[in-house]
Amino acid sequence: MQYPTLSALKNAYKQGRLPQMLLLDGVAGSGKKLIAMELAKMLCENSSEPVIWVIPIDGDAEDRDSPAKIDAKTLELSQKFMQNPFHIGYITDAAMVSVGMVEHLLKNFELKAGGNRTVIITNADLIDDLSANKLLKTFEEVPPNTYFILTANSRHSLLPTIRSRSTCFYVPFLKNNEIIEVLKNYGYSAPSEDILEFAAGSAGKAMFAIDSNYSELKKKVEVYADYATNGDASSAILYAQEIEKSINIVAFFLEGLAMRCPAHIQSINFLLKAVLAKKFSPEHAIQNMALRLAQKAI
Questions:
Q1: Which of 72, 139, 167, 263 could bridge to 19 as Cys pair (CB 3.0-4.6 Å)?
Q2: Which domains occur in the chain, in start order?
Q3: Which has more pLDDT, 77 or 126?
Q4: Distance between CA atoms of residues 118 and 216, nearest Å
Q5: Helix/strand/coil percentages in the chain, nearest 5
Q6: What is the pTM for the complete model shown?
């Protein structure tokens, strides 16, 4: 499978004009991590330096300040990405890049590099403001032979100071035949038409939908929607109690609801963005949506 963004960046490197600060943005599960890894492999081909990963991690605050725990968790996640860079279920709801993680990263630059050094910062939109500000000086004056490759679902979710220092490349949505090909390459059976429709250009989303039994979730969406659109918010809320309340599952639930109730897409999108930005809890979003649907029905 061909990735035009990857081809363009490889050509830029051959011509000696690859920027030291790259930002790959696009929908989750579209191949940004795969492109980042392929670039890192190319950059470090003749280098004695290993690829450095910075990955948002969860756990207690002290876990994100302990070098040993940071290394262990980063190794675990980076190995998962190397096995399947499309899957979107490896980063948890509570994950973040902390100041301690940034300080741990910067210690790598105290020693002179033995060739090109590449740093992949995945899900860079989960860097908190303090950590981002601590990175700014390094981003302003990137050390020689050092390349930063950031991935994010949207460049606009990053601090403007980081965005302005990066050369941004958009990774486009995948076509359905490309999603089918990717899934086959990573051991998945061909997805159903409703999963392809739901995936909306993301192989990772299709994978997570299959792993999360989206077909069953879709049935739950329909029951919930029937209660709510008939004015019975209480029954919808009670029924929704059996639905897992992780951010990813509730995001899937709301997206499925948007397909089921297109007339309410504006309200659903508002709540979806609020959940993903962690301004609403998943429980609150489901309750709020039931009330909105029921009020429209009365």
A1: 167
A2: 4-172 (3.40.50.300), 177-211 (no CATH), 214-297 (no CATH)
A3: 77
A4: 42
A5: 60, 10, 35
A6: 0.84
